[in-house]
Amino acid sequence: MTLHIYFARRFAMMFLSILGVFALFLGLLDLVEQLRQFAGSASFGQVTWVTVLKLPGGIYEILPLVMILATAALFLMLARSSELVVVRAAGRSGLVALAGPVAVALVISGLTVAILNPLVAATSKRASDLTESYESHGASVVSIGREGLWLRQGGEDGQVVIHAERANPDATILYDTSFLAYTPDGGPERRIVAAEARLDTGAWVLSDAKEWQLLPGENPEVSAQSHTEMRLPSTLTQDDIRDRFGQPSAVAIWDLPAFINGLEEAGFSARRYEVWLQMELARPVFLVAMVLVAAGFTMRPARLGRTGLYVLGAVLMGFGLYYVRNFAQIMGENGQLPPVLAAWIPPVASLLLALGLVLQMEDG
Fold first, then answer.
1. How remote is the C-alpha of 358 from its chain's centroid?
2. Contact predicate 124/243, CB 8 Å
3. Which of 230, 220, 223, 356 is nearest to 293 (CA)?
4. How confident is the model at residue 141 (pLDDT cuts 50, 70, 90)?
5. How far apart are CA 316 and CA 307, in angstroms?
6. Among candidates 60, 26, 69, which has minimal Cα distance to 279?
7. Burial of 170 from C-beta contacts in 10 A (0-12 / 13-18 / 19+)
8. What is the 8-class DSSP label of residue 283?
9. Which of 102, 173, 182, 250 is the most buried (most CB within 10 A)?
10. Looking at the predicted structure, is the pLDDT value of residue 241 above 60?
């Protein structure tokens, strides 16, 4: 037990050290990019706050790489200090050294899914809202629930709140819609209902629309106008809506089951969210596989040489498995694979492959 605790502590310290270096590096790079993007439209303090909000999301994405590098660094240190040789000489298999790091990886993975995932969802959404407000002095928001789809677009002419009973999969065609436009000072200006609204370049194209002017002291119905087709200027683009409508990472894992049910009840496809939920549940398996991959390449005596080549092989294999995982995610989102299979097959296959590699390197 003492040996397991020793290796676990060394791995945890190595993991935190490498994670801190990467977090600092990512933060500085993103700060430079944000300063370039918001030049003249936001203060340094505002840009720094957006960078801080985006940092958890960046860390979340690089965790597999950090796992590989932390494991490789640990076993290279153990090999150079001959500690692995001592373990084997004492009659213990080198696989004993893996118990502590794997246990730590499982704990880190559990905390990542249970705590870091909701944090990333909250900070990413807040960073996106701040980015839009700094760029366009307004906000564009997408909200989906049992009552339908809600959009808000902003600009110099004021805000427009859009509600639709249902929509196509990427929310660029809305059905049974209503538009409520507000003046820049916040007062309602006009209301429009339409049977269908299609997002075109720079405008919504409304079909079978009726418009009411909301002027103080006047009856809106008197001046109401009907239109077979009309265009309503919009600051939204298809990419804007697609990014907000289709980013499952913006929903905390604890809220995903209820969110998926709400989407299905509202008539929207929840496949992307189902795949993401299963992938988050399978994340601990994938991170443990990354530990075993790195161990399989680096649990060897330092005297054999070619250490850098083996570390490079571990990193490249990790990237390859990560690519396969993302490819399976795309196939799941497109309906070519069931969500459970798309999310769980790559991590489980990676784990078995890595375990076979470790056994081959350790016991021949």
1. 31
2. no
3. 356
4. low
5. 14
6. 60
7. middle
8. H
9. 102
10. yes
CA distances 357 to 80, 195, 295, 313, 353, Å, are 21, 60, 9, 12, 6
Residue scoring higher pLDDT (138 or 122): 122
Residue 214's nearest CA partner among 204, 205, 224 is 224
Query: What does the alpha-carbon distance between residue 189 and residue 181 come to, in Å, rounded to a whole number?
Result: 5
Higher pLDDT, residue 154 or 297? 297
126: tokens are 């807040």
Name the packing angle between helices 96-111 and 271-298 (round to 10°).
Answer: 150
Q: What 3-state class would DSSP assign to 74?
A: helix
Domain assignments of the chain as residue spans, ordered by start: 2-135+262-363, 141-235
Residue 182 pairs in a beta bridge with: 188
CA distance 198 to 170: 11
Q: 335, 270 in Cβ contact below 8 A? A: no
Q: What angle, rounded to 10 degrees, do the helices at 307-333 and 339-363 form?
A: 160
- Both tokens of 55, joined, read 């940092």
Tell me the longest C-alpha to C-alpha distance in the chain.
Answer: 94
The three-state secondary structure class of 233 is strand
- Among 126, 114, 115, which Cα is nearest to 54's? 126
Q: How many residues does the chain have?
A: 364
Q: What are phi and psi of 235, to 5 degrees?
A: -90, -5
3-class secondary-structure state, position 220: coil
* CB contact set of 145 (below 8 Å; sequence gap of 6+): 262, 266
d(CA 319, CA 114): 25
Name which of 345, 356, 296 is nearest 321 in CA terms: 345
pLDDT band at 265 (very low <50, low <70, confident <90, very high): low
- Residue 97's alpha-carbon distances to 4, 5, 244, 305, 362, in angstroms, are 7, 10, 44, 21, 11
- State residue 240's pLDDT score: 65
What is the C-alpha separation between 67 and 324, in angstroms, rounded?
18
Residues 6+ apart with CB under 8 A from 231: 200, 203, 204, 205, 206
- In the numeric block, which tokens belong to residue 169? 């999969």
Tell me the per-residue pLDDT of 15-28, one tens digit each, with 9 for 90 and over.
999 999 999 999 99
The CA distance from 224 to 228, in Å, is: 14
